[in-house]
Queue: 3 jobs
Job 1
Amino acid sequence: MPQLKWNEYEVIECLGVLPEQEEFFESHHFKFAKGGLILELTIYEYESLITFSLFKQTSNKPFLTLTFIIRDEIKFINEKDSASLLFKNCILVSDRFWMYQGNEGKDLFDKTKFATELDIELTVYPHLEFKVI
């Protein structure tokens, strides 16, 4: 999988928080709170992989976790009345270690097992919203 196309500064501008970086710069971890919810967004740029986790502010366990591969890019959409991140051409996978290989050792995206070619939009302003386009 090629390295993810994204601009870290645009993600910082959209979310309004600085990322925590792991010791070996393996991932960028953003933690964003709004409206009684906490969104944790982890970007693994060398794997082109993103993980979202949503928590209630009163809980330490997520009620929703989604992991997907981005085959295109992360695009910042900054409009007068909204701000969002668009994740283009995604494949929803089971977790970070999703690897499924066929007989020839090639990575396969079996459409019966993985939802493919999705565009996902995360809106953070004026309210937190997640939608599949």
Job 2
Amino acid sequence: MIERVGHLKVQIFKIKNRKGFAAVCFEHLTEGKTSQEAYERMVKALRRSNRKQVT
């Protein structure tokens, strides 16, 4: 499943041999119990990395 955050593509997939989902985007990897939780954590991670680049 592919979602978008702005112009970036977020790929969400089921993790094999584990419970939950993972999201990959722009050299970031996040995990969550549901695909929505993994997506929300990715949005937060992208915000943090963007903030580091500005300062």
Job 3
Amino acid sequence: MAHRHHHRPEGPCHFSLMSLAAGRRVLFVAAPLAALWLAVAWATGAFG
């Protein structure tokens, strides 16, 4: 049976929010860097 995550009022459900925010932060940092890297690679002719 699949484990389901339930938020409990008495328990700390702070971790999931923090991990989600960290994941979004990583995405917002990595996406422009990846786009910049692809632009540089394309400009230098790395893709042929």
